[in-house]
Specification:
The protein is α/β, with parallel strands linked by helices. The chain contains 13 helices and 16 strands. The protein has an 8-stranded parallel β-sheet, sandwiched between helices. Strands 9, 10, 11, 12, 13, 14, 15 and 16 form an 8-stranded mixed β-sheet that branches. Helix 3 links the parallel strand 3 (53-55) and strand 4. Helix 1 crosses helix 11 (309-320) and helix 11 packs across helix 12 (326-337). The radius of gyration is 20 Å and the shape is globular. Bound molecules: NADP nicotinamide-adenine-dinucleotide phosphate. Residues 10-16, 35-38, 42, 87-90, 92, 96, 111-114, 146-147, 180, 305-306, 309 line the site of NADP nicotinamide-adenine-dinucleotide phosphate (NAP).
Length: 351
C-alpha cells in the first residue's frame, strides 16, 4: 500500500513552481495544491499543470472574475494538508506560520530566505541533507537552507570528514547571480557587496565548529552562483588535488567537471539537455581550476541557484513526513530526480 502525505505548496514563484512539478510526480505525495497571491500568467501555468490553486480568501472573487478556476482559500488548503512546504517570498513565511500553520497545528518546511534567529525566526533548525538530515525527523518547523548554504554544506562536510583537524579554516568568496532566468527584474551593471552575508551563520547552524568566513558579491548574471573556497590546512599536511577530488567521487549532488568556461555553459547545457526547468539540481566542482598552493586548497564550484534546494526539500520531506533513514531517502530522491544519471551526463559533457 502506498502511504500518502498530503502536501500544500504555499507560493508558486521560482522555487514553488519547481517544487510543485517535481513533488507531483512522487506517488507517495498527494499534492493538495499551490498558492497564488497575484493574478498573472503563473495562475494559468498552475492550472495547465492540473494543480489546484488556492488564493487568499479576500481575492477569490477577483481570481474568478478574471476567469481563473480557484479551488479555495489558503486557509482551506492548509486545513486539508498534512504538511506545508512554504515557498513564500523572503520573510513572509513567519506571518504564514503565525496566521495559519501554528493555529491549525500543521508542520511546515520553510525556505532559506526566512529567519533562523531573532523575533521573526520560523524554526530552530536549518536542514542540510549532507550534515543533519536525521535531526529534522520529529521537528514541526524546519528551514531548508538556501541554495548557497546547501552547496557549502555539501562541499565542506566531506572535507571535514576526511581531513578533520588538519583543516584550519574555510574562506568562501561567494559570487552571486543578480536574478534568476525567469525573473522580470533588470540586471544592474554593477558588482555589489553584502555587508552582512547570512550564509556564514546559516552554515554554522549545522556545522557549528567550522572556522568559516564568507563574503558575498552580487554580479550582473542570471546564470548560477560561483563559490571560490579557500581551505587552509595545518602546516605540512596539505592534501593533493587527487585526494581532494576523491572526497567527492560518490557524493550525492556533486558533479566534478573540467571543460566548462563559466557558469553560463553549465546552465545552457542543462537547458539544451532538457533537464526540468533547465536545472542541474546540484553543485559542479570545476576541477580545471582546483589548485593546491602551499597550505591552501582552492576549490571553485558553481551552484545551481534555482535547482539546488528542490531535491533538498524532497529529502527533508522523507525525514519529516516518513521518518526514513538518510540512505533510503537518498535512494528515493535520486530515483525521482535522476541525480546520479544527470551527474554522469554532465561529467561526460564537460570532461
Ligand atoms: N530563487 C532562488 O534561486 C532561491 C533559491 C533557494 C532558496 N530560495 C528561497 O525560496 C523562497 C522563495 O523564493 P523565490 O525565488 O521562489 O521567490 P519568488 O519567485 O519571488 O516567489 C515568491 C512567491 O511568494 C508568493 N507569495 C506572495 N505572498 C505570499 C504569502 N503571503 N505566502 C506565501 N507565498 C506568497 C508569490 O506569489 P505571487 O507570485 O502570486 O504574488 C510568489 O509565488 C525565498 O525564501 C528564497 O530566499 C530562492
Amino acid at each position: 500500500m502506498i502511504v500518502l502525505v498530503k502536501l500544500f505548496i504555499n507560493g508558486f514563484g521560482n522555487i514553488g513552481r519547481r517544487l510543485a512539478s517535481a513533488l507531483a510526480t512522487d506517488k507517495e505525495i498527494q499534492l493538495v495544491g499551490v498558492a497564488k497571491y497575484s493574478i498573472d500568467d503563473k495562475v494559468k501555468e498552475a492550472l495547465e499543470n492540473h494543480f489546484d490553486v488556492y488564493v487568499p480568501n479576500e481575492s477569490i472573487n477577483n481570481f474568478k472574475e478574471r476567469g481563473y478556476s480557484v479551488t479555495g482559500s489558503i486557509e482551506e488548503a492548509v486545513k486539508r494538508c498534512d504538511l506545508v512546504v512554504d515557498a513564500a517570498k523572503e520573510g513572509v513565511g513567519y506571518d504564514n506560520k503565525k496566521n495559519f500553520y501554528e493555529p491549525m497545528n500543521k508542520p511546515a518546511i520553510f525556505q532559506g530566505g526566512e529567519e533562523r534567529n531573532g523575533e521573526r525566526a520560523v524554526a530552530d533548525i536549518i536542514h542540510n541533507s549532507r550534515v543533519n538530515y536525521d535531526k529534522a525527523a520529529g521537528k514541526r518547523y524546519v528551514i531548508q537552507g538556501s541554495c548557497n548554504v546547501s552547496g557549502m554544506g555539501r562541499i565542506m562536510q566531506p572535507l571535514i570528514e576526511k581531513f578533520g583537524d588538519r583543516i584550519r579554516r574555510f574562506d568562501i568568496e561567494l559570487v552571486r547571480r543578480w536574478a534568476d532566468l525567469e525573473d522580470s527584474k533588470a540586471v544592474k551593471d554593477s558588482i555589489e557587496w553584502d555587508r552582512n552575508p547570512h550564509h556564514q551563520d546559516d552554515v554554522k547552524d549545522f556545522i557549528p565548529n567550522a572556522n568559516l568566513y564568507v563574503d558575498a558579491f552580487k554580479v550582473p548574471s542570471r546564470m548560477m552562483h560561483l563559490h571560490h573556497m579557500f581551505v587552509r590546512f595545518s602546516d605540512g599536511v596539505v592534501p593533493n588535488k587527487d585526494e581532494i577530488l576523491e572526497c567527492f567521487r560518490d557524493e550525492f549532488g556533486v558533479a566534478v567537471i573540467s571543460s566548462a568556461k563559466g557558469t553560463g555553459d553549465v546552465r545552457k547545457k542543462a537547458l539544451e539537455l532538457g533537464f526540468p526547468h533547465g536545472d542541474t539540481n546540484m553543485v559542479h566542482i570545476h576541477q580545471d581550476i582546483l589548485r593546491v598552493q602551499e597550505d591552501t586548497v582552492k576549490v571553485a564550484y558553481s551552484d545551481d541557484q534555482t535547482g539546488m534546494v528542490i531535491p533538498e526539500n524532497h529529502l527533508l520531506i522523507q525525514s519529516m513526513a516518513f521518518k526514513r533513514s538518510r540512505n533510503e531517502a537518498l535512494s528515493r530522491t535520486d530515483n525521482l530526480f535522476q541525480m546520479s544519471k544527470r551527474r554522469a551526463i554532465l561529467e561526460e559533457e564537460f570532461k
